[in-house]
Amino acid sequence: MGRKWNNIKEKKASKDANTSRIYAKFGREIYVAARQGEPDPESNQALKVVLERAKTYNVPKAIVDRAIEKAKGGSDENYTELRYEGFGPSGSMVIVDALTNNVNRTASEVRAAFGKNGGNMGVSGSVAYMFDATAVFGVEGKSAEEVLELLMEADVDVRDIIEEEDSVIVYAEPEQFHAVQEAFKTAGITEFTVAELTMLAQNEVALPEDAQEKFEKMIDALEDLEDVRQVYHNVDLGE
Question: Where is the TACO1/YebC-like second and third domain (predicted)?
Answer without folding.
Answer: 79-235
